[in-house]
Design a protein that fits this description.
Layout (H helix, E strand, L loop, with lengths): L1 H45 L1
Keywords: Membrane, Transmembrane, Transmembrane helix
């Protein structure tokens, strides 16, 4: 029984860590996308 409970907790923490990692990754991707489009808009405005 104790092994099953420990496994459930490990699964919960692994899912939470994975969720945090995915959220951080998506945040970085959105930031890079916005940064890239800002440079592109500036280049079009200047040109």
């Amino acid at each position: 029984m104790a092994g099953a409970v420990r496994f459930d907790f490990q699964g919960y923490y692994m899912m939470a860590a994975m969720h945090a990692g995915i959220c951080l990754l998506l945040g970085v991707l959105v930031w890079l996308f916005l940064k890239g489009t800002k440079k592109l808009r500036e280049k079009i405005a200047v040109g």
